């Protein structure tokens, strides 16, 4: 216990020593900037120009704060905060004396995936010896968790805070920027999740569709069907790469323009299992056993998959007879699936799986 307390004391002392992260310049007066406690949320790893902080040294360039999110996607909204300390120091008697007071603004520049909000964000600097502090709040933009490209393993979100003097030509130097990094690290998971679309017999992969419309009669302009396959299978494949069995709820979400086939009654959903692993590139339905009908349920609750094996949930589906004008304007049908806490009726939290949720977008064209 004394060893742990000693380590904690040294760590707190190191964080406090970040006050020494100051920027110097050759001009007569300059704004020194440093980052320190209090930290809310995570306590970041701090570096200067990419190098670990060394107590008692000063930096010209960029103070960097590094955070980590251990999840399959970034959260949205408030994330953390830190204190930014500011001080006007006379670095040398050479150079032109600033014309005080000088306005100092803290401005975010560059990407807005991270939103840096300093409070206060503007100061009136009166001369050497002036000092102040600002609390900088970090938030992750609401759009980030919705963008699959930003939620891949290792994605690094970056936000930059610039110290800027107004008016320009005031001869007060600012040579420090503050840069915030938040890196996404996917947890290790036993489960792999895939979503892919095939012809209903599962013999042919579907990567694009042609939607046909009725040309005449009372149904003119309504969707008639899809080519080259009028009947499709929305396939959700789960692979357990670990030795132990895994239990989960599986939720299937076909594109809203499609309906189960046969509909509204009958068995449109089937479950298949296979000893060993597979993926969509090697998928062959003949490797699986006979399918077990599940009716029309898109929530498959408390499924248990043995270690090293694969499970396939397939939805036999076809496009609904909707107005052609109501089809997605971006020309994409979206199919997805998610794995959730077992026994929650597919309403629980997402569990660890790679990825989770999984999705496939199918481009389509409309023929008149």
Write the layout of secondary structure elements.
Layout: H1 2-16, E1 29-40, E2 45-48, E3 51-52, E4 61-70, E5 77-90, E6 102-109, E7 114-119, E8 122-125, E9 131-140, E10 156-166, E11 173-174, E12 176-185, E13 191-199, E14 209-213, E15 223-227, E16 232-240, E17 246-253, E18 258-260, E19 269-274, E20 292-293, E21 299-305, E22 310-319, E23 332-340, E24 358-367
Parallel strand pairs: 1-11, 4-12, 14-24
Antiparallel strand pairs: 1-5, 2-3, 2-4, 5-9, 6-8, 6-10, 7-9, 10-12, 13-16, 14-15, 16-22, 17-21, 17-23, 18-22, 19-20, 19-22, 23-24
Question: Would you write up a description of this structure?
Answer:
This protein has two domains: 2-185, Immunoglobulin-like (Sandwich), CATH 2.60.40; 191-367, Immunoglobulin-like (Sandwich). The chain is elongated, with a radius of gyration of 29 Å. The chain has a seven-stranded mixed sheet, with no helix packed on it. Strand 2 (45-48) and strand 3 (51-52) form a beta hairpin. It is built from one helix and 24 strands. The chain is mainly β and 368 residues long. 30% of the residues are buried.
List its traits.
single chain, Immunoglobulin-like, 368 residues, seven-stranded mixed β-sheet, 4% helix, mainly beta, 2 domains
């Amino acid at each position: 216990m004394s060893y742990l307390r000693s380590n904690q004391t040294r760590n707190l002392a190191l964080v406090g020593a970040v006050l020494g992260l100051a920027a110097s310049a050759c001009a007569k007066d300059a704004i020194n900037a440093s980052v320190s406690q209090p930290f809310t949320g995570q306590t970041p790893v701090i570096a200067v120009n990419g190098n670990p902080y060394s107590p008692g040294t000063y930096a010209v360039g960029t103070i960097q704060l590094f955070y980590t999110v251990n999840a399959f996607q970034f959260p949205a909204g408030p994330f953390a905060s830190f204190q930014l300390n500011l001080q006007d120091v006379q670095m040398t008697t050479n150079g032109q004396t600033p014309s005080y007071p000088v306005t100092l603004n803290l401005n975010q520049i560059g990407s807005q995936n991270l939103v840096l909000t300093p409070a206060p964000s503007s100061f009136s600097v009166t001369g050497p010896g002036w000092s102040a502090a600002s609390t900088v709040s970090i938030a992750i933009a609401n759009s980030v968790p919705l963008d699959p490209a930003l939620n891949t393993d290792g994605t690094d979100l970056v936000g930059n805070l610039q110290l800027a003097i107004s008016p320009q030509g005031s001869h007060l130097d600012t040579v420090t920027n503050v840069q915030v990094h938040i890196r996404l690290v996917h947890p290790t998971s036993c489960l792999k999740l895939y979503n892919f679309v095939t012809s209903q017999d599962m013999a042919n992969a579907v990567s694009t569709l042609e939607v046909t419309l009725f040309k005449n009669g009372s149904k003119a302009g309504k969707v008639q069907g899809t080519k080259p396959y009028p009947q499709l299978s929305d396939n959700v494949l789960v692979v357990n790469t670990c030795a132990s069995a895994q239990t989960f709820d599986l939720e299937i979400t076909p594109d809203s323009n499609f309906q189960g086939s046969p509909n509204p009654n009958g068995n449109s959903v089937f479950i298949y299992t296979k000893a060993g692993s597979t993926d969509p590139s090697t998928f062959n339905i003949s490797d699986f056993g006979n399918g077990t009908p599940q009716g029309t349920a898109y929530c498959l609750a408390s499924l248990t998959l043995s270690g090293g094996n694969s499970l396939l949930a397939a939805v036999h589906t076809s496009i609904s007879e909707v107005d052609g004008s109501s089809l997605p304007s971006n020309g994409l049908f979206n199919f997805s699936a998610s794995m959730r806490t077992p026994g929650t009726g597919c309403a629980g939290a997402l569990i660890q799986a790679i990825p989770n949720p999984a999705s496939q977008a199918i481009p389509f064209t409309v023929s008149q």
